[in-house]
Amino acid sequence: MGHHTTQARDAFSLRDSQRALPMVLLVSIAVVVFYWSTSVWLAGEWTSSNALFEHGYLILLVSTVLLLSAAGRIPSEPLQPSWLALGAVLALSLGWLLARVASVALVQTLALPALLLGALLAIFGYAAGRVFVPAVFYFSFALPVWEVLKEPLRDLTIVVVEAFLKLGGVPTVIEGALVHIPAGTFRIASGCSGLNFFVVGLALAALYGYVFYASNVKRVLLLGVGMAIAMLANWIRVAWVIAIGNSSNMQSGLVDDHQIFGWSVFVVALLPFFGIAMWLGRNEPHGDRLAARNWAGPRLQRRNLVAAVAVLAALAVGPVWAKLTMDGYPADARARVSLPLAVDGWRGPVRTGSSWRPHFEGVSGEATARYESADGFVWMYANVYLSQDQGRELIYIHNRIGGDADVLNTATTRLTGSSGETFAARVMDVDDGLRSRRIVYWYEIDGRRVASDLRAKLHQARAVLTGRPEAGVVAVSAACDFECSGADERIARFVAALGDDYRPDYTVKVKDLR
């Protein structure tokens, strides 16, 4: 009898492992592990010093609870896998691959919840899998895609804060992002946009509406309430800090550190939010929206298990391909860049100091030199990235072709090569002390000269996938006198003398490749 009991327990354990909940856990873990580089980068954003997404781990926790709860609410009817969704998973994996090799972090992070939802729909089918949509959607509140709202929210904050201060009797003059008051000047930076309060307010409203409301209209109304209260709290925070700075002659501690104060104002603002939320839900039917029919979910059929294997294979395509094509050089590989030794009509290169010092994060190698002709000087800069990763890439927000100099204006132009063929390039004027400096530059990717950031990313992705990850930038600059026509002529003549087939030359430092 004891023997039969043991067999029954073993059989139960085996059947239990074939339920929906273990499969949901397996697929979720697979997405995190397969796309580990993106997961690590996203976690870094949640712990970074800018504090915009410090709520990320909390959002992850809530999304996990919603996901596991959804597994227990899958309808018990036969689960039909969706092979169309499987194709979507494969397409998303390849899309992530392109974003990975092109170092577009935003697209990579957006792919994570899309991959998870696609995988679940492929295994369980549309009818059953849609119970996971709210949980996966909720995770979007932890993604940096919301940063696109940072500048608009900051601009709106400046307008409203000016009105608040004048209403409060504080003499105020606004100059761009600068707020001049009698006691001094405040700068409303991007961090004052209140983006973190905005996203958290939306996340709270979305969660409350999902759990306690059955009406989609009321859910949308509550999202509007959460958004409005979050923005109002931020406006009050900024205006209050400026007013305190003015009354304390800029001596209050809040002038320099007001993050905790901001969250305190936000917490107080939640009181009317929850009051409105409960009032909206006064006629809603009671019931636990998160209650599960069976915590382990329905049993899976053979076809669901086959679909799960296919899903795991599709999920692995992008990461495996990236691994095979992006590991040609280690992250610390270095290169020695050589500038041309003979340019017709020019003497150089001369390694000499210059006020122009381009800045590129994590560059593998770079070189700057001066060339001289009868009518003046030009400076040439070239660099190379042997491999790229997030934060160590050719096209990156923190890279500055003009160095630390203030940018005066930017434009595009066309340069003429030695054969008479033209190609596109970027033009930038930067402050160079008592005069300006004209900089003309382009990207060199897989033998192509590219001016557009978008085109450069696309060419870079294709080049990496074909085993040619090396990419760089070439720039030529000249100091302007009263105007820049002379600088333009020198730059154009120098570029034409370089020749159509010029590409930056470099040698890899083999001793670093260990």
> What's the shape?
flat
Q: Outline the low-pLDDT stretches.
A: 1-15
Q: What is the fold-level CATH name, i.e. the topology of the largest domain?
A: Protein Transport Mog1p, Chain A
The secondary-structure class comes to: alpha+beta
Tell me the major beta sheet.
Answer: 8 strands, antiparallel
Protein architecture, described:
There is one protein chain. This protein is an alpha+beta fold. The protein folds into 3 domains: 172 residues, no CATH class; 133 residues, no CATH class; 178 residues, 3-Layer(aba) Sandwich (Protein Transport Mog1p, Chain A), CATH 3.40.1000. Helices cover 48% and strands 17% of the residues. It contains 15 helices and 13 strands. The strands form 3 sheets. Strands 5, 6, 7, 8, 9, 10, 11 and 12 form an 8-stranded antiparallel sheet that branches. The protein has a 3-stranded antiparallel sheet with strand order 1-2-3. It has a two-stranded antiparallel ribbon with strand order 4-13. A hairpin with a 2-residue loop joins strand 6 and strand 7. Helix 2 runs antiparallel to helix 6 and helix 5 runs antiparallel to helix 6. The longest helix is centred in the middle third of the chain and has 32 residues. The N terminus is likely disordered.
